[in-house]
Amino acid sequence: MLKQIVMFNRRIINKILRRTMVGGLALFLAACASVQTTSSGVVGIDRKQYMSGLVSGESLSLEASQQYSSLMSQARAQGALDNNPAQTKRVQTIARNLINHVSAFRPDASSWKWEVHLLDSNEVNAWCMPGGKMAVYTGLINAIKPTDDELAAVIGHEIAHALREHSREQVSQQMAAGIGLSVLAAITGSSATADLGAQLNEVMFALPNSRSHEAEADRIGVELAARAGYDPRAALTLWKKMEALGGSRPPELLSTHPSPASRMSEISAAAERVMPIYKQAVKR
Ligand SMILES: [Zn+2]
Fold first, then answer.
1. Which residues contact 44 (CB under 8 A, 6 or more apart)?
2. Are 180 and 201 in contact (CB under 8 A)?
3. Is 158 tagged catalytic?
4. What's the 258 CA to ligand 1 centre distance in angstroms?
5. Domain boundaries, given as residue ranges, for the chain
6. What pLDDT score does 164 carry?
7. Which end of the chain has less neighbouring CB within 10 Å, N or C?
8. What is the pLDDT of residues 236-252, one digit of tens each?
9. SS3 for 158-206, per residue?
């Protein structure tokens, strides 16, 4: 099951690529547009995103929700779903409190079919699929022993990836790389490598790297937490705990969430910025 989850993004991307690669370059270029997935919030998210019109947010959410159903059925069959009622309730309550504030970034997300479950797994991991299907692993709870504020930080971060449609952006990049590759091969008559296609893509669209996705998820997550009345500074202690686990077997979450030194100062600055919101929220 774990491997399937890890493979989730790659599988969705490949499936969509197979369905849409027939579109061709002209269609791709015509269909690729700068979009605004979220408003900038107090934390000031203003990076331009380029999405292919060939893959809609709806189609990606639909794929995600099918994958999610099947994953949850498997987890249930293996007796690995929501086994700890108290922790499940805790995770679902915190997630709900955060989801109540997603409209600060995008109003349509309030009506997404959000879902969150607690999966039995030793992995230190949590994720949110496109469209709002989430999981938190017991491994994260057991290893990190997060406070509610820290749990809100990690769930808020994952929610932010979905709000910004980072997966869809990734798919768009893959498509650009793939199509750029085939065009290059046609022009030069050579069998271009994937590297070349990726480079061409980068030059053509100057697409951001995943570091920018992580930075955005950090900042939006921090603001969501503050709005929901969770201490935004807990993001700092959360990631410090995560890194302290490191050692010979770093947490799964860190392998997909690179954590350079600059990250802590960026999170700290964002947390300071939303402190007034947090203080207001706590008063209510
Ligand atoms: Zn992330």
1. 219
2. yes
3. yes
4. 8
5. 2-283
6. 95
7. C
8. 999 999 888 876 666 76
9. HHHHHHCCHHHHHHHHHHHHHHHHHHHHHHHCCCCCHHHHHHHHHHHHC
Alpha-carbon distance of 204 to 38, in angstroms, equals 24
Per the structure block, which two tokens stand in for 85? Answer: 């009622």
pLDDT tens per residue, range 203-259: 323 344 478 888 999 999 999 999 999 999 999 999 999 888 876 666 767 766 666
Q: Taking the model in full, what pTM does it have?
A: 0.82
Indicate the helix (H) or strand (E) that contains 69: helix 57-77
> Using CA atoms, how far apart are residues 233 and 207, in angstroms rounded to an integer?
30
Structure tokens that stand for 72 in this block: 């949850």
Neighbours of 226 (CB within 10 A): 29
- Of the candidates 52, 66, 72, 56, which has an alpha carbon nearest to the alpha carbon of residue 1? 72
Catalytic residue selected from 63, 115, 150, 158: 158
Task: Report which DSSP code applies to 108.
Answer: G
Distance CA(101)–CA(8), nearest Å, equals: 27
